[in-house]
Amino acid sequence: MPELPEVETIKRQLNRLIVGKEFGEVKIFSPKVSNFSENKFREIAVGAEIIKISRRAKILIIGLDNGWTMLVHLKMTGQLIYRPSARNSRLPENKHARAAFYFIGGSELLFNDSRKFGYIKLLKAKNLENFWAERKFGPEALDKKFDAGKLKKIFVVRPKMKIKQFLIDQKNIAGIGNIYSDEILFFAGVHPCRQAGSLSSAEIKKIFQGMKKILTLAIKLRGTSSSDYMDALGRKGRFASRLKVYGREGEKCVKCRETIKRIRINGRSACFCPTCQTDAAPI
DNA sequence: TATATTGTTACACC
DNA sequence: TGGTGTAACAATAT
């Protein structure tokens, strides 16, 4: 599940790998992954050079030198894999290959996605601002200007929301998904069902610290590979071994040896330790 | 075959 | 009006 650390990892890698490269050919194997037909996509992209890669929330922004940008969302199972040289022909070697970009010079970028939830959209750079405005993303989780005070203000706006859902909602904070919300709440010792408005200042501060600490470490380890995720070099991330609650239902809590529980909150699974993450607000 | 999966969004409700 | 909660949707592996 690519969340902020995984997308950030790919962003950093692609900035080293494909900036300055020019599209020589484009193949779209699954038409629905893009907002343009293969021909139209090719018309726009071929001949363009990549200027820089950035990220907003879980979306990769690949800036081109012709006034267009490519927006890539990996959703659940997407992968963007760079290969220094194209293997055989122009055929996908992965059965879940949805699109392929071949650069002048022989390298290539593959977009794989078994679930086909991800997308690669072409958007004129001048329309980007509007694109973000429509989505109403909250502050970037790791933005240096995002401090505990600002987080507290967002809590005030949505007091009824369960904290688990609050953390995942991109309109509150941008970049956190199911994995890291579970881990942040364990770090903070807060039960996922607690309402945002019931949290004390100390708890909000702890959530803030956990968010910064966990996401930063996860980037350092190139993300979490619990299922399909791979970085741009086709390698697994190394944060999975650091997970304390996510995906550990039925296993023992690393802190107190209690059994980790899993519940559903708004259709999403939430893993937590019933002992370490208390249900009640502190007095 | 039915079910679980998650990020996002559409929609009904108060 | 807009916050809130629920459900739908994407498509696949198991």
Using brief descriptors, characterize the structure shown.
alpha+beta, 21% strand, 283 residues, 7 helices, 4-stranded antiparallel beta sheet
Please summarize what this structure is:
The chain has 283 residues and is of the alpha+beta class.
Helices and strands, with pairings:
Layout: H1 4-17, E1 23-28, H2 38-45, E2 50-56, E3 59-64, E4 68-73, E5 78-83, E6 97-103, E7 108-113, E8 119-124, H3 128-135, H4 148-157, H5 163-168, H6 178-188, H7 201-220, E9 261-265, E10 268-272
Antiparallel strand pairs: 1-6, 2-3, 3-4, 4-8, 5-7, 6-7, 9-10
Helix pairs in contact: 1-7, 6-7
The protein binds a DNA duplex (14 and 14 nucleotides) through loops.
Helix coverage percent of residues?
25-40%
Total helical elements: 7
Structural class call reads: alpha+beta
Residue-averaged pLDDT? 88
Which range does the strand content fall in? 15-25%
Poorly predicted parts: none
Order of strands in the sheet with most strands: 1-6-7-5
What is the makeup of the main sheet?
Answer: 4 strands, antiparallel
End-to-end C-alpha gap: 36 Å
Using DSSP, what is the number of strands? 10
Overall shape: it is globular
Return the string of H and E elements: HEHEEEEEEEHHHHHEE
Radius of gyration: 20 Å
